[in-house]
Amino acid sequence: MFWGWLLTGPSSPRDSLGGPFGSRSFTSLAHGVHVFHCPDDVGIVAKLSDCIASRGGNILGADVFVPENENVFYSRSEFIFDPIKWPRGQMDEDFLKLSKKFNAMRSVVRVPILDPKYKIAVLASKQDHCLVDLLHGWQDGRLPVDITCVISNHDRGPNTHVIRFLERHGIPYHYLQTTKENKSEGEMLELVQNTDFIVLARYMQILSGNFLRSYGKDIINIHHGLLPSFKGGHPSKQAFDAGVKLIGATSHFVTEELDAGPIIEQMVERVSHRDNLHSFVQKSENLEKQCLSKAIKSYCELRVLPYEKNKTVVF
Questions:
Q1: Which of 115, 218, 259, 275 is catalytic?
Q2: Does the structure show a pLDDT above 60 at 8?
Q3: Contacting residues for 37 by C-beta, under 8 A, at least 6 apart
Q4: 155 three-class SS
Q5: What is the dihedral of CA 52, 54, 56, 62, to 10 degrees?
Q6: Catalytic site residue 146?
Q7: Which of 115, 127, 168, 237 is deepest in the core (most CB within 10 A)?
Q8: Structure pTM?
Q9: Cβ neighbours of residue 83 closer than 8 Å, sequence gap 6 or more
């Protein structure tokens, strides 16, 4: 498990003042978000509030989670502040002091209007639905990311929708041929080394443990089905043949164990005996697009924190 952004705190996405943290009419104030994970103790919420208030900031909302009998504290706070009265560098110093005081495992602060967007690489195979949805989400500003490149083991032709879109927007497309003996992971590592995280948009190759360790940052995957059911290949066909009445999609972090990483988001939809394989798959693909998009958005908004060995807290 990597949770790289939680350790390094790469800069957050640009957004309008009314971005992912709610609509506000303030013209001189900026929005910030802070997440905190530390051993539980008396007075943490009070100190967090005082840190923000002492610099003239105002908390818009706060979520706290303290698991029973586990002596651990999680919080996520959204606040507004005047960047002139509370400079960005000073904000980092103030939260760092709190982090040291409470021996925090993670303390990350982000200011969307001041910090750059996340840089991501998207890996995809032949299926286009998740890739196209991500590209349109990026174009529309729904996803607070910068797509540095698209990498695929499928050689798309020059006149395909995806290639034309990428060329129009100056996003490189890298075709890396893969075989059982050679997964082109060395070339892939060079292409993704300056990214904050990777998104697998229906990438049908298994990334090796060596690749995961070498990359060292988070990788988000989308899987048809409510994991742990229907792992591995052709999950839609597996579910259809099983006669399920609820289909789902699961977005999760990638680990060395196939389709078993910490879950970020899950969505479901009802199906029936009236669905044929085509309508079944179409519903599944729509769920996959929605689920992956929401997982990425939650991740970028610092809503996802590690919990226990293989779980997440999602505020």
A1: 259
A2: no
A3: 6, 72, 73, 74, 104, 105, 106, 107, 305, 306
A4: coil
A5: 20
A6: no
A7: 115
A8: 0.86
A9: 30, 111, 114
